[in-house]
Design brief:
six-stranded antiparallel β-sheet; alpha+beta; about 475 residues
Length: about 475
């Protein structure tokens, strides 16, 4: 039996990442179709048998970026009080190959629970609530920490959206190299051994997505390796793209292109003089192309809002699985972790980092502050701290806490005799923290001071909400 929903979701919609007005969850697993018969099948599933080789067209076509899932596919079209969450939603066989994984099923479960609560509160059927209360449902999901592609916080009750933001410092990002490894002791050691010392041959057309601030971009440096005794010519292209998930190899305007000379047997940073006086703020992609005897070294560390990748069999770019970025430097450093990011309305890096980080050279404590033109009344303060978003959870040790999460922090407002502390946490391990004050406080400013992290050198914050 198949329960049919108000919308029958198909794989073509997911592959083109169609924007549904009633997006309620997201997925990103590839279209993973198992061989009929399961463990008793006479042959392994075809993609597994060839090691999921994304250089092959048949495999690469199944790799898709983050896509939205419409709420209508979770609501029965025939039974008025029935909703589905998980592997029984209204999808084609091929679409089921990507939406069926556990993390995505969990997100759909949260969406259905929110739908049911909204329908009950409004005295409406599930179908009526799905159609007429979708904005309310989406804003509840976003507030609870869900990511909905193409949607941002627009909650009119959130006082933080009307504030101006400043901080004690901000991180001006100059890139990542092979020499500036920061140990993350909460990850399994094989993450580091698989990322350290790795290279990607230039014949695979490696690339790096990264963020720029809209100011000058004078030059870029890439750490390249030449295994031959001859100078290698490396074609380089800097392209403006829509987001970290823009995989179109030919899309986006070219900001700069040129040919880099890679000396014989070199293992060094090669600089490209881009000389851009004003670069468009947002996501860029640096693409390299050369021989199989030359390679781009991977960095020894990762950064939020960056992703390394290469061309796959379908002629598209896709992020790599080396668990490190490409070694890239930029001058001048880019201010892409500004304080204003905490009220951007987004809690994932997309076309910006959407995260504030303090200057790591200044140490801790560091603070970030909201200021209003006139006093507001605050009762609930919600904080979202940065987390690692690139590795699957099986790379994390049990009870893993990302190093960027604040361990010790306080919330304070101005008082008649100096700062008045509202909240103090000395051993936090959560990325999402909600603080409800016993009595409301009227203030024109609110300051978060981070005194210690779980190992990160910068204080960081993704979102602050105030109600």
């Amino acid at each position: 039996r198949r329960v049919m929903g108000l919308h029958f979701l198909n794989e073509n919609e997911l592959q083109r990442r169609e924007r549904f007005a009633d997006t309620c969850a997201f997925g990103g697993w590839f279209i993973d179709l198992h061989t009929p018969g399961g463990l008793l099948a006479p042959t392994s599933e075809p993609d597994s048998a060839i090691g999921y080789n994304a250089d092959l067209e048949s495999v690469a076509l199944k790799y898709i970026g983050p896509y939205g899932i419409p709420l209508r596919s979770l609501v029965s079209r025939d039974v008025s009080n029935l909703a589905m969450a998980g592997r029984n939603i209204s999808v084609t066989h091929a679409a089921l190959g990507t939406v069926r994984v556990m993390a995505t099923c969990g997100l759909m479960g949260e969406a259905v629970g929110t739908l049911a609560a909204t329908a009950s509160r409004n005295g409406a059927s599930l179908a009526h609530a799905a159609e007429n209360a979708i904005h309310e449902i989406q804003q509840v999901l976003l507030r609870n920490g869900c990511y909905l592609p193409g949607f941002a916080n627009s909650d009119p009750a959130d006082q933080a959206r009307r504030a101006s933001v400043r901080a004690s410092s901000e991180y001006a990002f100059s890139g990542l190299g092979t020499w500036d490894r920061v140990e993350d002791t909460g990850l399994r050691e094989r993450v580091w051994t698989s990322g350290t010392g790795k290279v990607v041959a230039l014949s695979k057309r490696p690339c790096q997505w990264f963020q720029i601030d809209g100011g000058p971009l004078d030059r870029l440096g890439v750490h390249l390796l030449n295994r031959t005794r001859e100078t290698q010519a490396v074609k380089a292209t800097l392209r403006k793209v829509d987001s970290l998930w823009d995989y179109d190899a030919g899309g986006g305007p070219v900001l700069w292109s040129g040919v880099l000379d890679l000396p014989a047997q070199a293992d060094e940073v090669i600089w490209a003089e881009t000389a851009l006086p004003h670069s468009p703020a947002g996501t860029c992609r640096l693409e390299l192309e050369g021989s199989a005897e030359a390679a781009w070294r991977c960095s020894s560390n990762r950064a939020l809002g960056l992703a390394g990748g290469s061309i796959i069999g379908s002629g598209r770019y896709h992020w790599n699985r080396l668990h490190g970025e490409m070694a890239l430097r930029m001058e001048p450093p880019q201010k892409v972790y500004s304080p204003a990011m905490v009220i951007s309305g987004l809690t994932r890096p997309v076309d910006a980092t959407n995260t504030w980080f303090s200057d790591p050279s200044q140490g801790l404590p560091q603070w970030i502050e909201l200021t209003w033109p006139e006093a507001v009344s605050l009762r609930t303060i919600e904080l979202t701290f940065p987390a690692q978003l690139i590795l699957e959870t099986h790379w994390e040790n049990p009870f893993y806490v990302p190093p960027q999460v604040a361990r010790r922090y306080s919330l304070s407002v101005p008082g008649t005799e100096g700062e008045r502390t509202l909240i103090r946490k000395d051993d936090n391990s959560n990325t999402k923290c909600v603080h409800k004050l016993d009595t409301p406080v009227r203030t024109r400013s609110l300051r978060l001071t981070i005194g210690e992290t779980h190992g990160g050198r910068s204080a960081g914050l993704v979102e602050m909400r105030c109600y």
